[in-house]
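Hello,

Following up on my earlier ticket. Below are the two sequence lines again, exactly as submitted.
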Amino acid sequence: MRTHFDCIPCFLRQALDSVRLVTMDKSIQEEVLRKTLRSVSEMNFSDPPPAMARKVHRIIRAYTGQSDPYISVKAGSTQMALEILPELERLVTQARNPLSTAIRLSIAGNIIDFGAISEVGQEELSKSIEQALSIGLDARTVAEFQSMVYEAQHILFLGDNAGELVFDRPLLQLLPMDRITYVVRGAPVINDATLADAQAAGMMDLVDVIDNGSDVPGTLLAACSRSFQEYYKKADLIVAKGQGNYETLSGENKHIFFLLQAKCSIISHSLGCAQGTFVFRKGWQSIL
Amino acid sequence: MRTHFDCIPCFLRQALDSVRLVTMDKSIQEEVLRKTLRSVSEMNFSDPPPAMARKVHRIIRAYTGQSDPYISVKAGSTQMALEILPELERLVTQARNPLSTAIRLSIAGNIIDFGAISEVGQEELSKSIEQALSIGLDARTVAEFQSMVYEAQHILFLGDNAGELVFDRPLLQLLPMDRITYVVRGAPVINDATLADAQAAGMMDLVDVIDNGSDVPGTLLAACSRSFQEYYKKADLIVAKGQGNYETLSGENKHIFFLLQAKCSIISHSLGCAQGTFVFRKGWQSIL
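Thanks for your patience. The regenerated structure is below:
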């Protein structure tokens, strides 16, 4: 997905939100903003938004000298999610349609996105879970997902944010975990999950976990490690969580199911849905 | 007033809104955005926001080759306001407190601000008039204004946007018009009023009208003509309409009454009021 002009004010807002979270030092904030403005002025609009977000957050890490500015935010999110986990598992176990419920709860976890939302606490999480329980999913898509999962030999599950990973656990437990490789980012960027966050979320107890070798808040294939690219080529089914993975993979000719909350107007426009919608969609290209 | 970091995403949104209004040509839109980003990256944050807005709109005019991109928007606003004028005059004439009503209606007209709001039509105007009629003004400020108007020999009335000028007419008619000089911008910028717009609004039939010699969407004294600066020095009372005039004159040691709608969070924060508030305030410095 190309970067839209409307993403530009948002890059600046994101940079401002993030640098404020990391430091109170106005002169560093100013330096980050100036450098971000220059960097955005030179960006290639054919690149997806996460390519620019990577640059913005590299700037923030460089100017603040913090290699993982969201480390405590991420730890807090994981802790919060782990406290809710028994309730999530109970909801899935007792559901009339456990798979649909698990998918919806996995999408509920996608609210923990500090790129799109400035603060996510207990209240936002509860509201998101409530929304998950109140909506329906397209039955045909669920059925198609189920049959493809059954047939697939190599499933890649592309995780998104720290804390959100915990919300994927009930879904993973309904899938053939021995054929799933769970993927996180290769280095810290915003509150996206890395191997350390996957460890904290207990993902390694369920499935194989690898990182994609990149600090893009999404899956920009060209920026990923050779090793991840091999996994990607081999995969016959991909589950992709969140906006960043959608923005970077929506044009791919692969069997990809996207699970996300459409948090911004550009994404919801691209998906043809209202802002805030819980999205469970098979990739466009793969239908052809 | 300094430029806040939060103004930066807003500058970009403004540039995007404006260039889209002027041209559908994506390559021109892109050029304007890139140039705006570079320009903002070099700005002096001690300058008030209108200093940057001037640069942004100079870029838009230069790249689109249109010297007055908002010319038809402005004509439409003036036309719309002139149609409402008899009703505004009736409301003031029949009011229990005509001066207070005229001040509030003058502030109602400040909704016609294409810098802050992307579209203003009949509906927004009606809502704004309704708000004007439902609120109260601080009685002491109105009394102080009345007594200062009575004593002042040289009153400058700093107008703001095309169309909004018409909303100032009922107020002017309650003031000593022979001691008032009405001021518009020296050149087109956003939908700010110029001499041509003042003419269309019929301002010359009531008072002397001059322009300030500058294309800043506010009153940045250093950028104004020598002639305007003389008027400014001589003035013993100033009425300043809108955010741009507030942003550029809020620190001035002069008797200034500001009439505006606090349309953005930075302004409302600076004024200590909720966003959307109708503001009628005497300048801070002049109280000292």
